[in-house]
Amino acid sequence: MPGTALPDPAVTRTLAVLGLVGAGLAVVLVGMLHVVAADQVNPVQRTISEYALGESDWMFDAGVLGLSVGSALVLLALVRAGILRPWSGAAVLLAVWAVALVIVVAFDKANWSVGPSMSGYVHRYASLAAFASLPVAALALGTRWRGDMLWGSFAAWSRWAGVLALLWLGSILLAVAVRPLTGAPWWQLLPLGLVERGLAITEVAVLVVLGRWAVRAAAVPQPAEMISA
After folding, report:
1. Is 226 part of any domain?
2. Which of 83, 94, 111, 229 has the least CB density, counted as fewest CB within 10 Å?
């Protein structure tokens, strides 16, 4: 759309950078949990959400909320930069990711030493929505800009990071699917803690790719094509 003026690039860049800071905060806080609560959670078999049931729950909550806010800022920056169109499929999925992270914090994982709970079920499905929505959004956005001379490399990183995240998630879903054939609890069919941590790291990497994309797009004085992704 030649001649279309984009919003103030300095503001857009600031939003993207703050979004990356939110992702960094999540990495630092959740990473620290593996040290300060190392004797409470087995990282091979137990999920990251287990930390929310311990004494250092505030670190988990702050990290995940920081990631949520950072994701919302990256989403806004991508829209302002013209990379992502408001209310497009990818934009909606990114918003689902950010909102689902808030729900993950608001509803604690079930404490299985006590038994299942409604909060635990909400937490589980919010986690699934979050883990699925971000990589699909990255795939959609990367596919739309595929082959673009300016943004093709970012599009490729977005697609491949999205694919890797879905492969991690797919291994969990596969364990659930084959459970009736094995007779064993699905979470015992794989090192769930390691798989979920691999998935979480990859999802953060997806957000970093999108955030850096927004930073670069804000610095380019040309009207990026407004697309539906």
Report:
1. no
2. 111
Q: What is the pLDDT along the chain (229 residues), one digit of tens a residue?
A: 444 555 788 999 999 999 999 999 999 999 999 999 988 899 999 999 999 988 889 999 999 999 999 999 999 999 999 999 999 999 999 999 999 999 999 998 887 777 788 998 999 999 999 999 999 999 999 999 998 999 999 999 999 999 999 999 999 999 999 988 888 888 888 999 999 999 999 999 999 999 999 999 998 865 444 444 4
In 3D space, the residue among 22, 25, 41 whose CA is nearest the CA of residue 33 turns out to be: 41
Tell me whether residue 2 is in a domain.
no
Model pTM greater than 0.85?
yes
The domain total for the chain is 1
The domain of 21 spans: 9-215
Q: How many CB atoms lie within 10 A of CB 54?
A: 15
- Amino acid (one-letter) located at 217: A
The number of C-alpha atoms within 13 Å of 98 and in the hemisphere containing its C-beta is 21
| Whole-angstrom distance, CA of residue 115 vs CA of residue 111 | 6
Q: Which amino acid is at 155?
A: A
Task: Report if residue 77 sits inside a domain.
Answer: yes
* Domain annotation covers residue 70: yes
Q: What is the rounded (10 degree) CA torsion for 65, 66, 68, 69?
A: 120
